[in-house]
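Lecture 7 notes: from sequence to structure.

We start with a single chain of 328 residues. Read the sequence below before looking at the structure.
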Amino acid sequence: MKKILLTLLLAIPVSGYASDRIGFEYINAKSIAESIPSVQVPMPGSPVYAEKQELSIPEVKPPLKELKASDYYFNSYILKAVEYLKKNYGLKGYNIKAVLTHDINYGTYGTIKATKPPQTMCVAAAMETMLTAYQIYLNETGDYTPYNYLPKSSYERLGIGDLKGHIWVNHSFNSWGTADALANFGMGVKVKFDKLQPGSFVNINRTTKTGHAVVFISYLNSDGKEQYYYNDKVIGFKYFSSQGGAEAGKGGFDYRYAIFSKFGCPNLNSTIKRDCNVIYSENQNYLNTGMMLSPKYWTGVKPDANQAAGFSVFNGNYFNGVTTDDNL
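Now the structure, written as tokens:
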């Protein structure tokens, strides 16, 4: 009888899956990133396998409907905000003196007023995308963290202690773009260009001594096609921002395709609106790239609000909104 019982016990299948792989809900993306030096940009929810196997990092692809609010990065909400703004406020006109296409409620703390609606410009477009993402996040989760983290005035004023002052780009604030702004306030991290995921933030500089603030959507390859991973075929990237002419239908929120200057300005296909002469560099001062963290991972780090540092001033000549294939 003992022999029979022993045989039966040995015959019962023991699942190695549960022991070899940690469940999705138990993974802390931040701790995984810290324990694996080779992973520069961890994405949450990656399965962790047996000790000898490598961490698998899935690509993030639009529309990202499947991502949860608990994800380490805020990319899914940034992309939902892009979709919303394109549909409801797209191509309303570009104006270097305009901030926000419409008034936006800041939680229970009041309303951030648009200056010349429905027009807007590029650094304001980056800020409006964030504010819209906060609203979508609140509607889906009921979490007011984004609004309790910084006062409403931080999105209205331009001092060193204000997020807007850093988004507007101010080298004396150690801000060369939106990625720096978010990192300076503990709300994001800088990420190398070849590791970007859709919904990242990018500030570009051109050989024409102009620049732009945008949301990264995908990489662009030499065949004129989009892809969600970096390889040696990449010649630029697709982005979302406000640019173009002042007239409705000719400027405002829309997509463009940035092409790095070393690849010239090829005519890839008739559907692509190009933004050529973009400088490729691993120096974040020239190509400022990064990702926003999910609000629950914001660190609380903030710049010293020293008024002696002065205020940011928008440079309309530099951020003039002009791209290669604008229909002005």
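Helices lie at 2-11, 17-20, 29-35, 75-89, 122-141, 145-149, 163-167, 178-184. Keep this in mind for problem set 3.
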